[in-house]
Structure formats: C-alpha cells, structure tokens
Specification:
The complex is a heterodimer. Chain A is an alpha+beta fold. Helices cover about 30% and strands about 40% of the residues of chain A. Chain A has 4 helices and 6 strands; from the N terminus they run βαββαβαββα. The model of chain A has no long low-confidence stretch (mean pLDDT about 90). The termini of chain B are far apart. Classes of the chains: A alpha+beta, B alpha/beta. Zinc ion binds near residues 248, 250, 310 and 314 of chain B.
Chain lengths: ~130, ~425
C-alpha cells in the first residue's frame, strides 16, 4: 500500500536532530517509522508520521528543508526469509530497483513492515500485491 | 528620461574640453591647499601648468585607500573647516574609517548626480521611493534620499532592516521604487514569501540596487522573485558615495557622470593605463569636488569602459558590471579566485540558491577552498545519491571555471549569515 513519507535535510551538527524531534513533539506528532541516511556533512531523515501534512508543516515552520514523497509500505511475516520472499525476490524478478528501504517490527507479534522507495511505485505495488 | 541632457548628452569633444578645464583647476587647487598632493605632485615633477591635455592625467600620482587612513581624519581636506557641512565615513574594513567631508557645493553636486541616477533608472516625480539603504555615516541612505527628493518623488526613509515593517509600508503606502543592496532585495523577497505576501499584488516596479558587487545571474534571480526591473548603480565613499555611475534602461553598463568624475582603467599590477574595452582596475579622479577632491583614486574594482554611443542618447562612457575587486581576490594555491566567479557558477547550477560562503583554509601547508551552499527545498531530495550528485555537479563546474577543485558542503537553508549591508562571502582562515 502507498504511504506518504516526510524527509528532512539535517546538517550533521549538534542539536539539529533534537530541534527536529522537539518540533514534532510539541504538536504531538508520532513517528511511526524512521531511517537516517548520512554522509560526513549532512543526513536525510526519513519518517512515516502519524500526521504527514501537519508534520511536514511543523518541520518547515521550524526552519527545516522538508520533502514529502510517496513510498510503498508492505506488511510481511517476521520470520527467516520473510523479507526475501515477500519483497526482495518478487521485486528483483520484476526488474525493479530499490532506491532505499527500511523496516520495522509491528506491535503485533510475528509481523513486520517494510517501507520501500522505488522509481515506479504503481508497478511495484502491482508486483507486491496490497 | 534624462535629468540633465546638457551634460549627459554632451558631444564627447565638448565633454573632454570641460573635463580638461576642470582637471586643471582641481590640480591647481590641490597643489595650493593640500600638502599631501603638493608633495605627491613635486615627487612626480608636476606643476599645474604642466597639465595641458587629458592624456596628462596618466602622469598624475595615484591616491590609494591607505592615503585616506594615513591622513585621517582631515589631512586631505581642501577647504577651511567652516565650509564643511556634512561628514560621512565608510565602514573601514581595517583600522580607521575613510572620512568624507562635504561642502554645501558638494552636497549640491551629489544631489544632482543622484537625481540623474534615479532618473536614468526610470524613476520620476510620480514615484514613491522606499529607501532601504542604511542612513547614518554610510553614504547610501542620505545620498539616495537627497536624490529622490530632487527628482520630486515621495521618499520613505525606512533605512535598512525590520523587513516585515518594510513589507507593510510597501503595501500600505503604495511604494513603487525600492532602493537597497541586492542582497537586501533578496531578503525582502524571502520575507514576503514567509509571511505569504505576493509582491506582484503591490505597486512595486523598480529597484535601484548597489553598494556591493552582484552578477547578472543574481539580477535574474532578483527580477524573478520581485516584480521589479533591477537597475545597477555604482559609487564609493572616497569619490562621492552613490552617484558615480548608473545603468540606463538598456542595462548595458553603467554610464559614468564624466563631467564630475574622470575615469581610467589601469593594469592593477603595473598601474599602466589600459585602452577602452580592456578589463582592469577602475581609477577615478573627481573634477568638481570641493572638500575632498581626489586624484586618480585606485578603486580596486575590476571593470572595463565602453565609450560607444548608447541607445539612450547619453554620450557618457559606460563601465561594465564590477566583476571583482583586486583586494577581494583570493589567491588559492597560487590561483586567482574572485568570489563573483563562484557566485556565477552556483547560480548556473539549477536550483541552487544564491546564498553561499567561501571558506579558505590551510591544511598541511596546502590551501583548501571550501564552499558552503544552501540547499533549497527545490533541490532537496530524499535520495542521498541525488544530493551527492548535486555536490559533484557544483564541484565540477567550479573546477572547470577556477582550475582548482573546491570542497562543497551542502548546508540548511538560511543557515548562512544574512547581512543587511554587504554580504561577507569569504572567510579566510589562513594564517599567512
Ligand atoms: Zn544608455
């Protein structure tokens, strides 16, 4: 299923992550999933938020550079081979390249969720099923 | 429109005759009144009578910025103190400021060249001019103020800063002309965006911008973000303040008011005069200043002169946009680098905001050039490789222009210092 993700440009500097998290906290926005890609100078923080629209606005107000993007969110079984069989192999067989992905465990036991960024989300959704 | 057709469209032969007459008088007066110049003339073997043609200006001594410092505060004054009616001073990047006294005749001349400047930019008595140049010792504020009033426009003396109030006045008073530094024009545009004001809904139509070098690309940026035609002006405290030269509506270089200021281009290293069209250091001689006449002032500004006829009808020589300063010039690993070159490249790489900072450091006896570039929302991507390819693109572009490979660091928007006056683009951390 498609989901909206909020990405934030964060300089690698003391206090920037705190400032970002505080901005979300003040408006009671929950982070459902999070991943960070970084290099020596900056990081890209990617998040699935309880309220995408409000979250993005709050972060912009706090002076951050923010982008909203469409990603795929796919449930999968939390067991050996789960990621491989449910996501990685079907996409690979369909010739779909992953830009990036990150996964998290669901509160429900035995379940996990993966967030996937691909160039063509429509096609990937057809390959993976709902 | 031309404020003073008699002088601004004078046949060049007549203009040159007038310049020579005024130059002779100036040299004679300085020889008599200012010991510094008397000595400098003596050293060069010059007597007032030996100035016979305009070409003789090349024999006159130069005046450098340090001569103002060495003669601080009134050593170069050419009139009795009681004739001074105003004193301005430049910021003075090192040590004492440059002190610029004016007689009432100087104020009159300055007002006149500023009236010409604003008329050339396209302003008339019908306009409402919001003057966001700093008032005070800086010549920008009062120079524009007097010129605006002389033209007959309604002048709003906001001075610089308090941008939200500036925007309120633009809306409420129906401001048509904004006068400020190009950087401040961008701050105004950014602030308007922040508070959700569409500047196109205001009556703003013209900007008269200067007091710091800016590129054609920056002009495009300003004209895209503000509903104005952006006119470039030039001036400096040592000569008169703003009012030395200005673009006409054809925006093809700035016409120098040559009946008051004699312009030359010299090779910055040798001091040799260069012909029209060649790039070099602008050297200015005041022809009518009373309190502080200056002979052959080394401006350190790099430009070139074009005397060919202009479509506007002015016969005055045009100087090209200042592309750099001889003292702004960075030498990095033996290579000359002008911040303006870096600015042009950044603005050409699509989407990169014109806010940047140049940092020069020395690591293990090797100069390192680092450029901090603000990432706008337009170029930000959630994919690392896209941001890294942006860095690479900027680096490669700069490398091809400068011949050295700088380190590029992407930083958050608005994280670089915004100044309301001159932007400090370069931080040189080298200890030489
Ligand atoms: Zn012209």
């Amino acid at each position: 299923m498609k989901a909206r993700q909020v990405s934030v440009f964060v300089e690698n500097q003391p206090g920037r992550l705190v400032a970002m998290l505080e901005a979300l906290q003040t408006r009671n926005i929950d982070i459902r999933a999070l991943s960070v890609a970084d290099n020596a100078d900056f990081g890209i923080v990617r998040m699935i938020l309880s309220d995408t629209r409000l979250g993005a606005d709050v972060l912009r107000e706090a002076g951050f550079t923010v982008k909203e993007t469409t990603v795929l969110q796919k449930d999968m079984p939390d067991r050996p081979g789960g990621l491989l069989e449910t996501v990685a192999r079907p996409l690979s067989e369909a010739g779909i390249n992953l830009e990036y992905f990150y996964a998290f465990l669901d509160p429900a036991p035995g379940k996990a969720t993966i967030v996937i960024k691909v160039a063509d989300p429509e096609r990937a959704e057809r390959v993976l099923g709902p | 429109m031309i404020w003073s057709p008699k002088y601004e469209t004078m046949p060049r032969k007549d203009l040159e005759r007038l310049q020579l007459e005024r130059l002779k008088a100036q040299v004679a007066r300085l020889n008599e009144k200012v010991p510094f110049y008397r000595q400098a003339f003596l050293d060069k073997g010059i007597t007032p009578a030996s100035i016979r043609s305009l070409a003789d200006v090349a024999r006159l001594p130069f005046t450098a910025k340090h001569d103002f410092r060495d003669n601080y505060p009134f050593g170069l004054l050419a009139v009795p103190h009681d004739e001074v009616v105003r004193i301005h001073a430049s910021s003075g990047t090192t040590g004492k400021p440059v002190v610029a006294p004016y007689t009432s005749g100087d104020i009159e001349m300055w007002t006149e060249v500023m009236a010409r400047t604003l008329t050339s930019a396209g302003m008339s008595k019908m306009d409402i001019m919001q003057n966001a140049y700093g008032y005070g010792l800086f010549t920008g504020g009062l120079g524009f103020h007097y010129g605006g009033e002389r033209v007959g426009a309604a002048v709003i003396p906001t001075s610089t800063g308090n941008t939200k109030r500036q925007l309120m006045l633009i809306q409420d008073l129906g401001t048509t002309v904004i006068t400020c530094t190009p950087n401040y024009a961008l701050i105004i545009a950014e602030t308007a965006l922040e508070i959700g004001l569409d500047l196109k809904s205001t009556r703003l139509r013209l900007g008269v911008l200067g007091a710091e070098p800016w590129s054609e690309r920056m002009r495009a940026e300003i004209e895209a973000k503000l509903p104005i035609k952006a006119i470039d002006i030039y001036g400096l405290t040592e000569i008169v303040g703003p009012g030395v030269s200005v673009e006409c509506p054809h925006q093809c270089g700035m016409h120098i008011f040559e009946d008051h200021f004699l312009a030359e281009i010299v090779d910055p290293r040798t001091g040799e005069q260069l012909p029209y069209g060649e790039k070099g250091e602008l050297v200015l001689t005041t022809l009518t200043k009373e309190a502080l006449p200056v002979i052959r002032f080394r401006t350190k500004d790099i430009t070139s002169l074009d005397p060919s006829p202009c479509k506007c009808g002015r016969t005055l020589v045009r100087m090209s946009k200042v592309t750099g300063r001889t003292d702004d010039m960075l030498i990095v690993r033996g290579i000359n680098v002008f911040p303006s070159q870096i600015e042009s490249v950044l603005l050409e790489v699509e989407g990169v905001e014109p806010h940047y900072q140049i940092i020069v450091d020395r690591e293990h006896h090797l100069d390192e050039l680092e450029i901090w570039v603000e990432v706008s929302e337009a170029v930000f991507s959630d994919e690392m490789r896209k941001l890294e390819s942006l860095e690479k693109r900027v680096r490669k572009e700069l490398e091809s222009v400068l011949g050295i490979s700088p380190r590029i660091k992407l930083v958050e928007p608005k994280s670089l210092a915004r100044t309301e006056g001159k932007a400090k683009r370069v931080i040189d951390r080298r200890e030489l």
